[in-house]
Specification:
The chain is of the alpha/beta class. It has a single domain, classed as Rossmann fold. Helices cover about 25% and strands about 30% of the residues. It is built from four helices and ten strands, in the order αβαβαββββαββββ. The strands form two sheets. Strands 2, 3, 4, 5, 6, 7 and 8 form a seven-stranded mixed beta sheet that branches. It has a three-stranded antiparallel beta sheet with strand order 1-10-9. Helix 3 links the parallel strand 2 and strand 3. It is globular. The two termini are about 20 Å apart. Bound molecules: inosinic acid and magnesium ion (MG). Magnesium ion binds next to strand 6.
């Protein structure tokens, strides 16, 4: 199957153009907070495309964030229904005393973002803001809200724009939904 055939079979929910336009507005919202010395922390892997576009939108909005990466994995333990989050690759930088913007792709149960926020808080960050591409309209397993979100999203599994199913579809320039 060619790449074109693959992406043709996916319903576009948010087009590349819609995302680009929204990210410029979102970056202006973030810049309006006038946070000096911001450290942006994308949560990998799913947020890498979003974060790459967002930090360039932040630059256009007049900001100069530093960037470091945190790789997390959530999985379900066998025979236990609750998801658990683990660190696959830790930050290089110290966050103590810093203002941090955590960037993630999807806010779903909330466990991943809550884990990242608790970790960075426990290490002594001065201020923690959170920004997600998609805020899924589902009941959270943990009580957390994103400070910034690009789009609200229905309770459906999405791919593209960095997000995968079984390591596929991250390359698509839009956010889409698999048919069926
Ligand atoms: P949470 O911990 O349940 O909030 O899930 C958030 C994480 O699960 C995100 O960082 C994503 O990597 C992943 N995720 C949740 N929903 C989707 C989806 O629809 N497509 C791809 N990844 C998803
Ligand atoms: Mg993720």
């Amino acid at each position: 199957m060619t790449t074109t055939e693959v992406s043709d079979s996916i319903d576009i929910m948010f087009s590349a153009g819609q995302i680009a336009e929204r990210l410029d507005a979102l970056a202006k919202e973030i810049a309006a907070r006038k946070i000096p010395g911001l450290l942006a922390i994308p949560v990998l892997k799913g947020s890498f495309v979003f974060a790459a576009d967002l930090i360039r939108a932040l630059h256009r909005a007049g900001m100069a964030p530093e960037v470091d990466f945190l790789t997390l994995s959530s999985y379900k333990k066998s025979r236990v229904s609750s998801g658990q989050v683990t660190i696959l690759r830790d930050l290089d930088l110290e966050v103590e005393g810093r203002s941090v913007l955590i960037i993630d792709d999807v806010l779903d149960s909330g466990r991943t973002l809550a884990f990242a926020k608790d970790l960075i808080s426990a290490r002594g960050a001065k201020q923690i803001l959170t920004c997600v591409l998609l805020d899924k309209k589902v009941p959270r397993a943990v009580n957390i809200k994103a400070d910034f979100s690009a789009f609200e999203c229905p309770d459906t599994f999405v791919v593209g724009y960095g997000m995968d199913v079984a390591h596929r579809y991250r390359e698509l320039p839009f956010v889409g939904r698999l048919p069926g």
